[in-house]
Amino acid sequence: MSHNDSTAAEGRGELRDQPQRTGTTGTEGAAPALTALSAPAPSGEAHRWLALAIVMAAAFMDLVDVTIVNIAIPSIQRTAHASVSQIQWVTAGYALAFAAGLITGGRLGDIHGRKRIFLLGIGGFTLASALCGLAANPEMLVASRILQGGMAAMMVPQVLSIVHATFPAHERGKVFGLFGAIVGLGAVSGPLLGALLTEWNLFGLEWRPIFLINLPVGVLAWILGRRFITESKAPKALKLDLVGVALVSLGLLMLLYPLTRGRELGWPLWGYVCMAGALVVFVALVSYEKRKAARDGSPLVELSLFRVKSFAAGIAVQTVFGVALGIFFLVWTLYMQVGLGWSPLRAGLTGVPFSLAVSTAAGMSVQKLVPRFGRKVLQAGALVMGAGVLLYLWEAHRYGLAIASWQMALPLVVMGAGMGLIVAPLTDAVLSEVPREHAGSASGLINTVQQMGNALGLGLVSVVFFGEIGDRLAPSQAGPAFVHAFQHALWWVAGIMGAIFLLMSALPQRPAQHMEGAADEELPVVEREPELVP
Description:
- By secondary structure, the protein is mainly alpha-helical.
- Helix content is 72%, strand content 1%.
- It is built from 16 helices and three strands.
- The protein has a three-stranded antiparallel beta sheet with strand order 2-1-3.
- The longest helix is centred in the N-terminal third of the chain and has 35 residues, at 45-79.
- The chain is globular, with a radius of gyration of 22 Å.
- The chain starts with 19 loop residues before the first strand and ends in a 31-residue tail after the last helix.
């Protein structure tokens, strides 16, 4: 869904330097880093676990925010009178801002203090949530969502850093196990919470409570975070690359804006010129990043990583996988609520088997299957997910408007199982052959490109879904038109899964497992889960 369905901490870069801690809980001492871990000075057992609960709450809030919004999209479109492109930007704007700011957010934490940037991020995220909930029109909602994504990019990368600065190596396995539980809980609870809040129409606010619910959580986390989180910095943190961020953002905007607006405007010439210009911007980005690396060794994108075949292929897989998820989850919720006329609650409950299948398969793939079968597990996941898409396509065609929730369960379980086989071990597979000194930058880039792919997929919804729906439909025509458009979009998703299967052949046969506790110098990665349900 959007997300991703969900967040644990972001596997991000720039953690390999030894941070210097200044005790804000009455304790001084050196914090663990990735290359030379040393146990943190005792700061009080209760304080450490309270700090963990605070960053987990922030991670959970970000995760649920993505999934909760997806299921409310039809309500937002109906009551806020939002256009097709505006509802796409409600989700794509968040993903784009999150992706563009992710690596910079991590570096800001290393430079200025992870606690400080975390509090800035969660405070801004809470304020942006209030602005979303109070939005007077679709334009204000889109702008507030973009702000929310940018603040999440400040907040989320600090989570893993704070865990490393707070817990010694031998305890982190337990901590990351708790993060996994949070991801699973968010995958199921986000859509159901969004469905309930939308269905209940609290105080006549329609969809607005899905954003306003962040306010008490965010305010409490900010207050407690000031008290219990210990500050840490990296003395040798990489410099900011604001020009790189600007070029990435400009290129993506020049690509996405014509895609989302082109259909409504009749595909004007300027749209094609703008998309072509995006390629020029990306070429300029590559040229600038080369010069930046040679000048001070702190580019936004470490281009030398792409000389590693498995990493280049893995980045392609992450990007294309993000495109598939961006397309599927938005059109799925529109298909169920607008095409089939289902309530948000029924749509949310229909997605539960999918979420459970993802969580179950993800656990099995990491613990049992990948250590034994290696890359074949990921390739099998792509085939299984593709098979689930084709099965869904067949059922949607066979039953049409009469399809029931229970009839969707089988294809959703198959799709979820396939996705679970991919999402959990993919990051380790991509990082397997990356030089250790670049592991931090590589992991940050992996998560960034998946969010960019997600934003691109959401932009493509105008082409693969709304492009199949007429501009002026009678009420009796809306259902069949949405069912047909959903089937058309599923063909695209199935084709993308086939491409992912082929790209995976370049991944290592036996992906290395960057598991916590294996070696002090290894990089543990807790990946941001993709959005699981609408």
